[in-house]
Amino acid sequence: MRSTALVGLFVTSAAASPSGIHDRTGRVVHKRTTETAQLYAYGTNISGLAIYAGSDNLAYLATAGAAANLTAVTWTIDTSGTDAWTVAANATAATANSTNSTSALTSGSAFYIVSDSASADAFAQAGFVSDAASAPTGATTTGFVTYGPYVMVLEDDADGSGQETYVSEFWATTTDTDGLWTLMWNEAGTAQDNSVPLTIKTTAPVVSELL
Ligand SMILES: *[C@@H]1O[C@H](CO)[C@@H](O)[C@H](O)[C@H]1NC(C)=O
Ligand SMILES: *[C@@H]1O[C@H](CO)[C@@H](O)[C@H](O)[C@H]1NC(C)=O
Ligand SMILES: *[C@@H]1O[C@H](CO)[C@@H](O)[C@H](O)[C@H]1NC(C)=O
Ligand SMILES: *[C@@H]1O[C@H](CO)[C@@H](O)[C@H](O)[C@H]1NC(C)=O
Ligand SMILES: CC(=O)N[C@H]1CO[C@H](CO)[C@@H](O)[C@@H]1O
Question: Ligand 1: which residue has its CA nearest to atom 10?
């Protein structure tokens, strides 16, 4: 299956360090920078869709036509992975597409993925929590970094060497609504029903002028 080429975009910190230098113990020391961003998902049939918060505070991808009842968000990201990535509703985007946001999204809610090491095959929907304590079991709200335009997760290597690895295991699963996907984290990176691997970037899709 061609899409599997996108699975596991690994970059070891030993080989390349996007935003830091190694300290004496070999750990990457990151320069902390916080910025406002929009995040876009790319994958098979998914050409740069924005990430939305649902009324259930879970994360979705949607085409403009399927974005009703979802909350468009603006991200505040710490590119070093130290702090959680937070979101606030983007009222401009909501008005532009007359969505009916029913989200209970609290401004400043943290993005999380479920990557529990105790269940290495975790395949669960990402979402947003107003405080880390209310995140689901196995969720993590830190470790998100950018590698150029790519959103990655910094994980400690399983061998306990202290080396860190940049991992991207974001996936999308179709829903009963055309143009609406759930945003998933696929810890093991294994094939899943009705799902495709994603690349998440801070850059918007190039809009064709020829439409
Ligand atoms: C992509 O869209 C086409 C046309 O709707 C569909 O036939 C195909 O199954 C989709 N592929 C995936 C991986 O969803
Ligand atoms: C949005 O929510 C309203 C009210 O709950 C519902 O009637 C409508 O079908 C929803 N629209 C979509 C696209 O889910
Ligand atoms: C809010 O969304 C609009 C429309 O999508 C976009 O142009 C704008 O940059 C967003 N605002 C922020 C602060 O990201
Ligand atoms: C928003 O809600 C209003 C009133 O419930 C409804 O008429 C309209 O179709 C909804 N818009 C969308 C995009 O779901
Ligand atoms: C944030 C968002 O989804 N904006 C969309 C609103 O609708 C227009 C027109 O359909 C799209 O071009 C925007 O991308």
Answer: 45
Closest C-alpha to ligand 2, atom 12: 68
Tell me, in angstroms, the distance from the centre of ligand 4 to residue 69's CA: 9
Could you read off the pLDDT of 87-107 as tens digits, one per residue? Answer: 999 877 765 555 565 567 899
DSSP 58: B
- Rg of the chain, C-alpha, whole Å: 17
Mutate to test the pocket of ligand 1, among 44, 178, 198 (most ligand atoms within 8 A of CB): 44
CATH number of the domain at 149, please.
2.80.10
Q: pLDDT of 120-168, one tens digit each?
A: 678 999 999 998 888 898 899 999 999 999 999 998 776 677 778 899 9
84 within some domain: yes
Q: How far apart are CA 76 and CA 145, in angstroms?
A: 12
**Amino acid symbol at 24:** R
Q: Please tell me the pTM assigned to this model.
A: 0.78
